[in-house]
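Example complex used in Figure S2.
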Amino acid sequence: MAIVAWLTHNKSRIIFAGLIMATLIVLNQAFIQYSLQRMQQDARGINIAGRQRMLSQKIVVGWLGLQQGTVRHESVIQDLEEWKYAHHALLRGADSLNLKVPDSPVTISLLNVMTPKIDFIDSLLMMDPLVFNIELQDKIMSNQSEFLLQMEEVVGLLEKSSDNKLFWAVTIELLLCVTTLFVVWYKLRFIYLPIQSDLEQKNRKYKFLLKELHHRVKNNLNLVSNINYLQCLEEDNEALMSIAEDTANRIAAISRVHDLMLSVEQGGELGVNVYLVSLVQNLANSATSKDGRYTLNLDIEDHLFSIDKLQILGLIVNELVTNIIKHAYDPKEGGLIEVSLKRQKRIFKLEVNDYGSKATSGGSKEKNKGINLIELLVKQLKGKITSRSENGMKFTITFN
Amino acid sequence: MKELKALIVEDDLVSSRILELIFKKNEITTVANLSSADQILELISSHAPDFIIMDVMIEGDIDGVEAAEKIRQISNVFIMFLTGQEDPNTVSRIGRISNSQLILKPYLHREIIATIKSELL
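Predicted assembly (521 residues):
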């Protein structure tokens, strides 16, 4: 029960599946190595059995050679010793030849039947003096040919045992392979896919919430702006209306950042270009009356800024452009508004220019208020503002 | 200049009050200020407005476009739709309403007045 409870967690499922995989790999390797070793032993056994058959014939030839005096006794004895040693190795196993006792009892009993044949040859070759006659020769011949046949049978049995092992090795390998595939499937089906779909679901939820949040913030800003506007409208006072309109524009500049953030959520860029261009265009459009039109010359390099910086930049541009619209040109005529943002080395340079005949700085009290707000915002940006009056007003703001 | 009569259907009451005051400044009378389309047909019959300002997302069972479809069965009054979202489906539904215009939020009051004047005067 504890294991079942433990397995409900994804982390423990991963560990569990990993352990199974590791066990399977170790089992697989152990089994393969074991089977290979066993099959190698069978191969050695087959090899030695073949050599025994050759030796049995060599001893017959040796016997005939001894009879004719063409072969030395020691040489035949050496073959005999080798023959005897290999026979006992096949029967009981021998470390020196890397042989183990045969698996099959049939093989063992067959080898046991062959032992007296070796003992018979051994007793003949150990006689002193050696006895040669035709009767003995026939006996040796039939003894050796029987040995040959029986050894052939042993080779057959060893081969069969080797084939058997191969069959089992392949079968178990296949089973392990199927089990491994099953574990892989289990991992995919019950571990990775649920995690993935869970993550996707969460991601969708957060995206939705984020979108909703931006909408809420925008709606709330809009509501604040509208309430303020309504209040001023009800007062029916021109000065108040002008303040309400300025405030509405400032709030719109702030709200626009949320549009930008929403577009980033949908794969857009948080670039300053899109933001400032739409901001200035909107100000110019709202100021364009039946008679006066504003021409825009916008040269804004696209750089990435933090949201805070972007918002302050937006407010500065909003103030400067609003000032131009209000004071630089005759509203019935309109005129040219230039905004550029460039980076030189590590310093950003924002320029807002007009070519109007009326000054946008100094002068009336209201204009000064606008300039004060701009100075405050520039200070917050840790930048510097300079202005010069030369065929209109040129404002330059530098910041890092 | 003929005095125009407006009917406003907008569930954001601050926005609708602003519109009403702006209209007043421009010598347009607001005959009714609704937040749903519930009694709109009766109001059109009794007040005969010159144009209707219709928010798409309004209170009640039907949205602004469905309300307009109902209005078209009794009147061909000019309808100005206000919507905050450029949902293609909504835009195409509005496109099928005759004698109407779509204005996206946030709108400029100046823009609304200019449209009314060019359409009706």
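Chain B has a mean pLDDT of 90. The interface with chain A takes residues 12, 14-15, 17-18, 21-22, 106, 108, 110 of chain B (CB under 8 Å).
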